[in-house]
Design goal:
The chain contains 4 helices and 63 strands. It is mainly β and 752 residues long. Among the domains are: 318-447, no CATH class; 493-681 and 736-751, Autotransporter beta-domain (Lipocalin, Beta Barrel). It has a 25-stranded mixed sheet that branches. The longest helix has 16 residues, at 11-26.
């Protein structure tokens, strides 16, 4: 038996020599030899029998068969199909391959004193060992499986683990790759280090690919990248992690790099949480690609590339000498987002294109910082979220510093929302700052944020909702005047309208309203030469508010009321309406950076209207109907908070509105006995209330809908049968703070 002298054997050779030395020891025990021929071990086999396969021999261990250690060398092969191989002799590997190959399926391999599966050896020449292992379990005393001599090991859905032993003084791993190629698809590997990526003598390199693997380090990092003991130069390792591989280490490290080794680490389409660390000697180049998310610290990294939709999420301050980006994101705020804790990312150089997520607190003049000490080139977007109180004084806040290079930075959405007001990004020499043009309240002051616009708009929208419904009640008089005034009846209306409102500087929204109302009335008596009708009504409407930038609001209105109408014999009429409304309001904000916020609140209102007019008939069935109208409304306010922390306080909203106008039309008799009245209408309306205050984050704004507007419309009222009237109308208006581009309504009344 050939042995090596202890004085010349290095520690790294110990691990790789286990296969030879152990197998040779086994030759002295109960052993089977396959020399240049083929042999099959059938069930049940012999768990005490070791096997040696030489000189192109082929050993097959069939389903249900058991053996002790198996040594395969000199271009031989071993096939395990549902077999059990358990080495119990000294430090023998379970299966050892030297210049040979193995195909292992649905089998169990173990060694109580050595490596479970060993590929390679020391001082040998010839072809490199290869093995393909599928749906199997491999356990070793110190290492589950090891590969050297530039071998190739493919592991498919296989479970590997190590026991309590060590090699080289302290090494213990589920898998060790010395200078070879390991491809692992699925399965798991567990040990002190789940995977040991290492190198041997002669300037060797290793390549490891992990796809959908669960890697667990029970006494250190999930993956250790370190040369074999005694190897000090020209060592390289390539590591690809993809397919949703999971890695965990007991020390919080996913990967640790130690010693004089250069590693190229690529993480592809895998979400990982943990740290990647180097000892300051190892050269570690990391690439994140294809939608990978890495959350953790990077320590003593040499370079980082963040590409193709991938993201690095910081957990604290960090520094990386060289960073390149290609459509990737670095989340500087990271796991501290929203906590008031800020991070600084220090880079030596920056190049490419990508995005940075950051948090700021403009009120305290603090925030995350990207600091590039050298040149920064390329184009980048900053996704900045501001937290904290409303700033009382606006001052520039630096978010990026560079040593030059001409990099261009811009804001996602073009602005940063800081409560009520928004800020933009401006270049200041080699640095970039958040700033705005003027202090709040000054001419040309800062722009309102989408949240503030939405809150101000929806807090003052109740009057337009209420008047949109009230117009329906005015119009129903067109039905009443067509009939015998002694009749009672029921009616229903459906309607739609759109308003364009600008209640205060910086607030501009479109309100689209649809609804239905109905009621019943009856003649209750005669007085002053006319007929009195009294009725009750119910109705509902929904209004959608649309703001610039995509924010929306919604108002569901529910109303109930009473009304009375006096119709005089000479055409005079008087009507009064008293209504209660409940408004259920909902705000959905799209902030400048594209994120959303939501809030809801309810309001109650009471309103009354009074109208006096006269229906005057002229020759050829023409008529004119002038009128004067007064409306009073009070809406009780409510406080609410958006999910982004914006607070709105409204005490109440009021409206006093007067209107004078007239309808001009003609009564046309139909051949069947019915009549129709086409008409046009004109009116001037004036809102007297100039101050409806809403406070947002402690800053007070005035919802001012005052001013005069011109209203015009056209419609048809018709009585098709004695007890059935129909009605339709279109309308529009223009004014100082409110325009109505379009409106329609239609309905019918049935009398009995």
């Amino acid at each position: 038996m050939k042995t090596s002298k202890p004085v010349t054997l290095k520690r790294h050779q110990i691990a790789r020599a286990i296969g030879i030395l152990g197998a040779c020891l086994a030759a002295q025990a109960h052993a089977g030899v396959v020399d240049g021929v083929s042999q099959t071990v059938s069930a049940p086999g012999d768990a005490t029998e070791t096997w040696q396969v030489h000189n192109g021999g082929a050993l097959t261990v069939d389903t249900g068969a058991a053996t002790n250690a198996i040594l395969v060398d000199t271009d031989s092969t071993v096939t395990l199909r549902g077999a059990t191989v358990g080495s119990t002799v000294s430090t023998n590997p379970g299966v050892s391959l030297l210049n040979s190959s193995a195909t292992i399926n649905d089998s169990t391999i173990s060694s109580t004193g050595g490596v479970g599966l060993a590929l390679g050896g020391i001082g040998l020449t010839g072809t490199s060992p290869t093995a393909t292992v599928t749906n199997s379990t491999i356990t070793g005393f110190a290492i589950g499986a090891q590969v050297s001599l530039k071998g190739t090991l493919t592991l498919n859905n296989t479970t590997l683990s190590s026991g309590s032993g060590t090699v080289g003084g302290s090494f213990n791993a589920g898998v060790a790759n010395f200078d070879s190629t390991v491809v692992m698809n699925g399965g798991s590997t567990t040990g002190k280090y789940g995977f040991w990526v290492t190198t041997g003598a002669g300037g060797s390199s290793s390549t490891t690919t992990l796809t959908g693997v669960n890697v667990v380090g029970t006494g250190g990092a999930g993956i250790l990248i370190q040369p074999s003991p005694g190897q000090t130069a020209n060592r390289t390792a390539t590591l690809l992690i993809d397919g949703g591989t999971k890695i965990s280490g007991s020390d919080g490290n996913l990967i640790s790099g130690v010693g004089t080794i250069t590693s190229a680490i690529t993480i592809d389409n895998s979400p990982l949480t943990g740290n990647i660390t180097g000892d300051g000697t190892a050269v570690m180049n990391l690439t994140l690609q294809n939608n990978t998310t890495l959350t953790g610290a990077l320590t003593n990294l040499t370079s980082l590339a963040v590409n193709s939709g991938s993201k690095w999420v910081l957990t604290g301050n960090n520094s990386v000498p060289t960073v390149t980006m290609n459509a990737g994101t670095i989340d500087i705020s990271g796991t501290a987002a929203g906590t008031g804790t800020f991070h600084t990312l220090t880079l030596g150089t920056l190049s490419g294109n990508g995005a940075f997520n950051m948090n700021t607190n403009i009120a305290t003049h603090s925030g995350d910082l990207l600091a590039v000490t050298g040149n920064a080139t390329g184009t980048y977007q900053l996704h900045i979220t501001n937290t904290g109180a409303e700033p009382s004084v606006i001052a520039p806040l630096t978010v990026v510093t560079t040593g030059g290079g001409g990099a261009a930075f811009s804001l996602v959405g073009g602005k940063v929302d800081a409560g009520v007001y928004s800020y933009d990004l401006r270049q200041d020499g080699n640095n970039w700052v958040l700033n705005t043009d003027a202090q709040p309240g000054e001419p040309g002051g800062p722009d309102l944020t989408p949240g503030a616009e939405t809150v101000i708009g929806i807090s003052g929208v109740a009057p337009t909702v209420w008047y949109g419904e009230q117009a329906i009640l005015r119009s129903r008089l067109g039905d009443v005047r067509l009939q015998d005034q002694s009749n009672s009846g029921v009616w229903v209306r459906t309607f739609g309208k759109q308003f364009h409102a600008t209640p205060t500087a910086g607030v501009d929204y479109r309100q689209t309203q649809y609804g239905v109302m109905g009621g019943a009335d009856a003649v209750v008596g005669q007085a002053w030469g006319g007929t009195w009708l009294a009725g009750a009504l119910l109705g509902t409407s929904h209004s959608k508010l649309s703001f610039d930038g995509g924010s929306t609001g919604g108002v569901n209105s529910y109303t109930a009321g009473l009304y009375g109408t006096w119709l005089g014999a000479t055409g005079y009429y008087f009507e009064t309406v008293l209504r209660y409304n409940h408004f259920s309001n909902d705000a959905n904000v799209i902030m400048s950076d594209g994120t959303g916020a939501h809030g809801s609140f309810g309001e109650n209102s009471f309103g009354a209207t009074f109208e006096f007019g006269r229906h005057m008939k002229f020759a050829n069935d023409w008529f004119v109907e002038p009128y004067a109208h007064l409306a009073l409304l009070r809406v009780g306010g409510d406080d609410f908070t958006l999910t982004n922390g914006m607070v709105s306080n409204t005490s109440h909203t009021g409206s006093v509105q007067a209107r004078v106008g007239a309808a001009f039309g003609k009564t046309i008799s139909l051949s069947g006995g019915g009549i129709i009245q086409p008409y046009v209408k004109l009116a001037l309306a004036h809102e007297f209330i100039t101050s409806n205050q809403v406070t947002v984050n402690g800053i007070t704004f005035n919802n001012d809908l005052s001013g005069t507007r011109f209203e015009f419309g056209a419609g048809v009222a018709g009585q098709l049968r004695k007890n059935l009237q129909i009605y339709t109308e279109v309308e529009s208006s223009v004014g100082r703070h409110i325009n109505q581009p379009w409106g329609f309504q239609a309905g019918l009344r049935y009398t009995f």
